[in-house]
């Protein structure tokens, strides 16, 4: 009996000891990580936005968001390992500026609390800035042949970077190295976009109008042809440009106005080899063949 009584006492003591020696973790908990991360390719910049669930879940502890960036390997599809802080913000959006066009980057966002904790990361997002412009006027060949051709990018110095004098070139419609020229149908005066350079093909982005050039996100994989397409206000068109055997670039335009003698459009081109990202927002001036700047006003 003595042994049994001792065992019971030891058991009770042991249980009591466990109860009195429990460790309570009172350290602050991190906020929720942003549920999603979005981006828009700009001219020399990337606009990031994300869901504001970290603030909504605990507004009294919320302090802000921290934005990180690193390199991105487009060929293999993975982010780099050396991350840098781009900045912090209290709003669920951030503009990453002074970014070289045609160079892919990877981004992530965390939520910060007033008690010093940092959340897990948002989903990662890769994006690549690229040149663009709005309200470019190109004439019909029959109205002004010298201003009826257009070339998205002519990498004159071969450095793989789009300089202002190489981008958005309004050129002579008789040239064979332009991406397209504008044809006016003599029967009904409709205007048509005609691929010219042997490596340039095009397609409609969708069977319905797009609200803005920013709606043309990723260039479709296939469906390109050498056929000409009627220029219709509101519609988007995507171009696949193959120069040589390995050089592949994508470009896009959205028609904003069609007259009898000219059309007006917004355009974008991706200078990163093989990169299909075409989102835009910004203002790259259009260059004439002489290198002078064209003043492009809205209509």
What does this structure look like?
The termini are far apart. With 299 residues, the protein is mainly beta. The protein has two helices and 20 strands. It folds into two domains: 37-127, Sandwich (Immunoglobulin-like); 132-294, no CATH class. The radius of gyration is 28 Å and the shape is elongated.
Poorly predicted sequence stretches spanning 5 or more consecutive residues? 1-18, 280-299
Helix/strand order, N-terminal first: HEEHEEEEEEEEEEEEEEEEEE
Write down the domain tally: 2
Largest sheet: 7 strands, mixed
Q: What is the tally of beta strands?
A: 20
> Which strand-content bin applies to the residues?
35-45%
Task: Please tell me how large the radius of gyration is.
Answer: 28 Å
- Report the total helices: 2
Shape: elongated
Task: Summarize it.
This protein is mainly β and 299 residues long. The chain has helices at 2-20, 53-57, and strands at 37-41, 46-50, 62-73, 78-79, 84-89, 93-96, 105-113, 125-127, 132-139, 149-153, 167-171, 180-184, 191-195, 200-204, 229-230, 236-243, 247-258, 262-270, 286-288, 293-294.
Keyword list:
mainly beta; elongated; Immunoglobulin-like; seven-stranded mixed sheet; about 10% helix
């Amino acid at each position: 009996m003595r042994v049994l009584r001792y065992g019971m006492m030891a058991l009770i003591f042991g249980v009591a000891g466990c109860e009195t020696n429990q460790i309570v973790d009172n350290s602050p908990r991190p906020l929720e990580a942003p549920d999603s991360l979005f981006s828009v390719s700009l001219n020399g910049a990337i606009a990031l936005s994300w869901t504001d669930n970290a603030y909504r879940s605990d507004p009294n502890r919320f302090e802000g968001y921290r934005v990180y960036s690193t390199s991105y390997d487009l060929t293999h599809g993975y982010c780099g390992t050396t991350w840098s802080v781009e900045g912090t913000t209290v709003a669920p959006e951030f503009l990453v500026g002074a970014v070289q066009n045609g160079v892919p980057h990877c981004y992530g966002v965390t939520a910060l609390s007033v008690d010093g904790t940092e959340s897990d990361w948002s989903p990662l997002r890769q994006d690549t800035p690229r040149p663009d412009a709005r309200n470019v006027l190109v004439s019909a060949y029959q109205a002004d042949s010298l201003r009826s051709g257009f070339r998205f990018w002519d990498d004159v110095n071969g450095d793989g970077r789009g300089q202002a004098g190489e981008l958005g070139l309004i050129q002579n419609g008789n040239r064979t190295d332009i991406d397209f020229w504008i044809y006016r149908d003599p029967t009904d005066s409709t205007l048509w976009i005609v691929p010219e350079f042997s490596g340039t093909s095009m397609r409609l982005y969708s069977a319905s109008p797009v609200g803005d050039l920013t709606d043309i996100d990723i260039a479709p994989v296939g469906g390109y042809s050498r056929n000409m397409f009627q220029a219709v206000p509101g519609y988007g068109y995507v171009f696949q440009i193959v120069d040589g055997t390995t050089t592949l670039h994508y470009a896009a335009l959205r028609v904003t106005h069609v007259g009898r003698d000219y059309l007006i459009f917004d355009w974008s081109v991706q200078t990163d080899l093989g990169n299909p990202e075409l989102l835009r927002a910004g203002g790259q001036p259009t260059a004439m063949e002489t290198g002078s700047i064209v003043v492009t006003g809205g209509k």
